């Protein structure tokens, strides 16, 4: 893999999850452009720097030891990438403080370096939280590849921080400079909520949730076909989002023991709040994680999954394939993986490579619900 070279450091960086023959880099030209700008304009002595949405630690690891660095984002895999890359480059694990997006980073900060996220609601929530957290003379700089930089990102910076100036494009990357100005204390519109009729529950959704305003159509196709069990099965909702699949299943299976896992901290936060609202003190395990990587082998009877088809801006089925492999390892012999997926993704054929039996439970013009038996 190529070395990430900036005026601050030369780093050997990898993505997470680590894949053999990974074709993608753990950094891009927007990271390089942003760090070059910071170096050219200098950092104050003992500068406190907040890095937001640093995909795999390229920004934070570069500045480790050069400033008091706090990194915050919504991706557990991003956090894992930061930890791996610090260790990989002989940097102390505590050289960067990490704050999950379910919590607020505490300033004041002299520099805020932002990678513009795919979900602009996440950017909005992050900018709202910066109110009162900027030191005098602070600079707020956002970076993105031009093709991933919507005009609305600049509008949000203008609304919550101050006047915005855009840089020239360099290597198809662009920077946005926001000059902090007096703004009234903003009121966050997040979390949002929507109600379902069947089951009759209300679901809260923090800013980075997929389909935050309404139930996504894949889950809508899946819900009527969820299995029900009276026995004490061990069940995982893999990629749980706001927890709707697990909650709906748990309401119909009162003895089941549920584990909910997602790589988004805001998804886990939403799922925990929704479980509490729907099921009270019923025991449950809810965690941010790399899928079922930490789940013991042969420890589950059932896995429910609406797999993602992208990681940040990268579209593909590699995460889904990895989740299917994790599910197979975690299931007991005879255990079942139930999934919903777009017809065109061909999950039926992929599951047949891993499981001894694959059955179509239901289908719509766009989606299929499949049961794979180990």
Describe the protein in words:
It is built from ten helices and 20 strands. It is of the alpha/beta class and 374 residues long. The chain folds into two domains: 175 residues, Rossmann fold, CATH 3.40.50; 182 residues, Rossmann fold, CATH 3.40.50.150. The strands form five sheets. The chain has a seven-stranded mixed beta sheet with strand order 5-4-3-6-7-9-8, with helices on both faces. A seven-stranded mixed beta sheet has the order 14-13-12-15-18-20-19. The longest helix has 15 residues. The protein is globular, with a radius of gyration of 22 Å. Keywords: Cytoplasm, Methyltransferase, rRNA processing, S-adenosyl-L-methionine, Transferase.
Q: Helical proportion?
A: 25-40%
Identify the CATH homologous superfamily of the largest domain: Vaccinia Virus protein VP39
What general form does the structure show?
Answer: globular
How would you sum up the major sheet?
7 strands, mixed
Structural class by sheet pairing and helices: alpha/beta
Main location: cytoplasm
Function: Specifically methylates the guanine in position 1835 (m2G1835) of 23S rRNA.
Family: Belongs to the methyltransferase superfamily. RlmG family.
Domain RlmG N-terminal: 2-181
Task: Please write out the topology.
Layout: E1 4-5, E2 10-11, H1 29-41, E3 48-52, H2 58-63, E4 68-73, H3 76-88, E5 96-100, E6 109-115, H4 120-129, E7 134-145, H5 151-160, E8 164-166, E9 173-178, E10 192-196, E11 201-205, H6 217-222, E12 234-238, H7 244-252, E13 257-262, H8 265-279, E14 285-288, E15 300-305, E16 310-311, E17 314-315, H9 318-330, E18 331-342, H10 347-352, E19 357-363, E20 367-373
Parallel strand pairs: 3-4, 3-6, 4-5, 6-7, 12-13, 12-15, 13-14, 15-18
Antiparallel strand pairs: 1-2, 7-9, 8-9, 10-11, 16-17, 18-20, 19-20
Helix pairs in contact: 4-5, 7-8
């Amino acid at each position: 893999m190529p070395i990430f070279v900036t005026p601050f450091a030369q780093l050997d960086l990898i993505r997470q999850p680590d894949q053999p023959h990974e074709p993608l880099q753990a950094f891009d030209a927007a990271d390089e452009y942003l760090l070059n700008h910071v170096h050219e304009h200098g950092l104050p002595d003992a500068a406190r720097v907040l890095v937001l949405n640093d995909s795999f630690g390229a920004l934070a690891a570069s500045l480790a030891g050069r400033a008091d660095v706090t990194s915050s984002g919504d991706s557990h895999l991003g956090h894992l990438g930061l930890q791996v890359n610090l260790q990989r480059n002989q940097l102390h694990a505590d050289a960067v403080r990490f704050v999950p997006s379910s919590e607020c980073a505490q300033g004041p900060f002299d520099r805020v370096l932002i990678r513009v996220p795919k979900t602009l609601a996440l950017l909005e929530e992050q900018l709202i939280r910066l109110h009162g957290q900027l030191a005098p003379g602070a600079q707020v700089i956002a970076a993105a590849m031009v093709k991933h930089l919507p005009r609305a990102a600049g509008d949000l910076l203008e609304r919550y921080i101050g006047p915005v100036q855009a840089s020239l494009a360099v290597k198809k990357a662009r920077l946005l400079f926001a000059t902090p100005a007096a703004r009234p204390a903003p009121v966050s519109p997040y979390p949002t909520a929507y109600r379902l009729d069947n089951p009759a529950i209300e679901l809260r959704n923090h800013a980075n949730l997929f389909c935050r305003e309404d139930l996504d159509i894949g889950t809508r196709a899946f819900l009527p076909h969820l299995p029900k069990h009276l026995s004490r099965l061990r069940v995982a909702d893999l990629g749980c989002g706001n927890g709707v699949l697990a909650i709906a299943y748990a309401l119909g299976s009162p003895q089941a023991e549920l584990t909910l896992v997602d790589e988004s901290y805001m998804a886990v936060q939403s799922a925990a709040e929704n479980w509490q609202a729907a099921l009270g003190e019923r025991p449950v395990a809810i965690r941010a994680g790399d899928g079922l990587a930490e789940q013991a082998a042969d420890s589950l009877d059932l896995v429910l999954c609406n797999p993602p088809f992208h990681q940040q801006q990268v579209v593909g089925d590699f995460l889904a394939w990895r989740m299917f492999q994790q599910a197979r390892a975690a299931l007991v012999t005879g255990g079942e993986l139930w999934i919903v997926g777009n017809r065109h993704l061909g999950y039926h054929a992929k599951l047949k490579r891993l499981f001894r039996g694959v059955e179509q439970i239901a289908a719509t013009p766009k989606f299929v619900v499949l049961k794979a038996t180990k």
